[in-house]
Amino acid sequence: MKKMLLGACMLGACLSWPLHAETVVIVVHPSNTADISTDELSRLYLGRTRTFSNGESAVPINLAENQPMRTVFDEKALSRSSAQLKAYWSKLVFTGKGSPPQEADTVDEMVKLVATNPSIIGYVPESAADDRVRIALRLE
Q: Does 120 map to a domain?
């Protein structure tokens, strides 16, 4: 029994290690020159502002709930669990005070969306950020 428990714990640690080892980067269109702080990022993804620091319109995009990178982003960027954010947005939607960011189904879709629209801000693993997007912030 102890060996099975130890094996399960080791497997869990191995499966979660790459997820946390990959740096999450905030990406914007290359023409977007806005500086992005973690505070501004939080305000954008919590619906408290709709513009970048340079005054341009901002459209935050989330990865789909089933994407492991979303959980990492929620915790690192917003300091909240996915469940807490779901409750937060449920309350705002119910009261008519906001709606959650739209979603991209995959990391590749996120990169394509950001690359085609200067207003979109998203997040991806650093290894997925190519020359079609600009890294605006690294979440370590």
A: yes
- As a whole number of angstroms, the distance between CA 114 and CA 122 comes to 7
- For residues 73 and 123, is the Cβ–Cβ distance under 8 A? yes
Q: What is the pLDDT of residues 73-129, one digit of tens each?
A: 999 999 999 999 999 999 999 999 999 999 999 999 999 999 999 999 999 999 999
CATH number at residue 83: 3.40.190.10
User: Is 14 part of any domain?
Assistant: no
CB 123 within 8 A of CB 77: yes
* Sheet-wide strand order for 134-139: 102-104, 59-63, 120-125, 24-28, 134-139
The range of the structural domain enclosing residue 50 comes to 23-139
Nearest to 139 by CA among 118, 125, 129, 120: 125
pTM of the model: 0.83
Structure tokens at 137: 């912030």
Q: Quick one: angle between helices 68-78 and 2-21, nearest 10?
A: 70
Q: Let me know the angle formed at the C-alpha of 79 by 134 and 57, rounded to the nearest 5 degrees.
A: 40
| Joined tokens for residue 73 | 């982003």
